[in-house]
Amino acid sequence: MNLVYGREPLGSRGRIPIFSMSNNYTDNYERISLDHLDSLRRYGVNPFIPEALWLQYEHSTIELIRKYSKPAHMILDVGVGLGRLLSDFPELRRFGMDISFSYLEIARTKKIEVCYALVEEMPYQKGIFDIVVCTDVLEHVMELDSCIEKILAVLKEEGTLIVRVPYCEDLIWYRSSDCPYQYTHVRTFDDYSLRALFEETFRCKIVEIVKAGYDAASVNRLKFRKFIPDRIKWRLPLWIAKIRSFYEPLYYLLLKKLYDSFEINLVIKKR
C-alpha cells in the first residue's frame, strides 16, 4: 500500500485506487462530469461556467497556492477535477481525490497521484499534507461538518488549508425543474457563515480572504441594485466596458467596488 494512505483500497480501476463505493450521489456526479467533458470535446467550453469566470476563479486560488507553498511540499486537491490547479505546480508532491473516474483519468496524465474517494471517507493518513486545497466542493457535500473534519485531519498542524466556494449564491435554479441534476449546490456561503464555520465550529484561524470572479454583465451581482434606477442598472455594463478599452486597471477596480464576486477563497490555519 502507498504509505500516504491510512488504509487499504477496496480495489482499483486501472491505476486509480478506490476507497469509496459508488452510489446515487457519485453516479450523479459522474454524469455531470461526463456532460462537462462532452461539451469541452465538442465545443471547447465548460457548459456550467463561462471560461472567463473560471479562469478568474482558478487564478485567484493558484496565486494563493504559490504564496503559501514551498518546493517539495505535499499538496492534496480535494475534488481535483481535471487537475488544472495542480498542473501549475510540478515542484510540489501532488495528490488529488475525486468521485469521477472520468476526471481522475485526466488528472493522472498531469502526473498527479489520484484516488477515488468521497470526502467523508478520506483515505489519507492524518497530518500528512502541508497544503490542502478544496475548491467548489463544500457547496455540494451532504455532511458539511464531517467533510471539514476529515479535511483538517490530514493537514499538518502548521499546514495551510485553501478553500474556495461560491459567494452569496442564489440557489433557486438548483431547486427548480430546469436543473437536470440531483445533489447540486445544497448550501450557500457568505463572509459571516464562513467565519462562524471555520473560526467558531472548528476553532481555526482565517488568515486571508480573497474574492474572485467579477462580471459587469451580471446585473444581479450589482451591489445596492435595489437603489439604482433600471435605466442606469442596465447601461452600467456598457459604460464599464468602455473604461476597460482605455484603462484596464480602473475597469477591474470598478468591478470590485460595484459588484459582488461569484466566489470567495479562504486561507485557513489550525489553531
List the helices and strands and how they pair.
Layout: E1 11-13, E2 16-18, H1 24-43, H2 51-68, E3 74-78, E4 93-98, H3 101-108, E5 113-116, E6 129-135, H4 144-153, E7 155-166, H5 191-201, E8 204-212, H6 230-233, H7 236-246, H8 248-258, E9 263-270
Parallel strand pairs: 3-4, 3-6, 4-5, 6-7
Antiparallel strand pairs: 1-2, 7-9, 8-9
Helix pairs in contact: 7-8
Structure report:
It is a single chain. This protein is an alpha/beta fold and 271 residues long. The chain has one domain: Rossmann fold (3-Layer(aba) Sandwich). Helices cover 34% and strands 21% of the residues. It has helices at 24-43, 51-68, 101-108, 144-153, 191-201, 230-233, 236-246, 248-258; strands at 11-13, 16-18, 74-78, 93-98, 113-116, 129-135, 155-166, 204-212, 263-270. A 7-stranded mixed β-sheet has the order 5-4-3-6-7-9-8, with helices on both faces. The protein has a two-stranded antiparallel ribbon with strand order 1-2. Helix 7 packs antiparallel against helix 8 (248-258). The two termini are 32 Å apart. The model has no long low-confidence stretch (mean pLDDT 95).
Largest sheet: 7 strands, mixed
The value of Rg in angstroms is: 19 Å
Question: What is the average per-residue confidence, as pLDDT, rounded to a whole number?
Answer: 95
Supply the CATH architecture: 3-Layer(aba) Sandwich
Low-confidence segments: none
What's the number of structural domains? Answer: 1
The CATH topology name reads Rossmann fold
User: CATH class, please?
Assistant: Alpha Beta
Give the total of beta strands: 9
Distance between the terminal alpha carbons, to the nearest Å?
32 Å
* Principal-axis shape: globular
**Beta content:** 15-25%
User: Treating each run of at least 4 consecutive H or I residues as one helix, how many helices?
Assistant: 8
Largest sheet: spatial strand order: 5-4-3-6-7-9-8
The proportion of residues forming helix, as a percent range, comes to 25-40%
> What's the order of the H and E elements?
EEHHEEHEEHEHEHHHE
- The CATH superfamily bears the name Vaccinia Virus protein VP39
- Return the structural class: alpha/beta
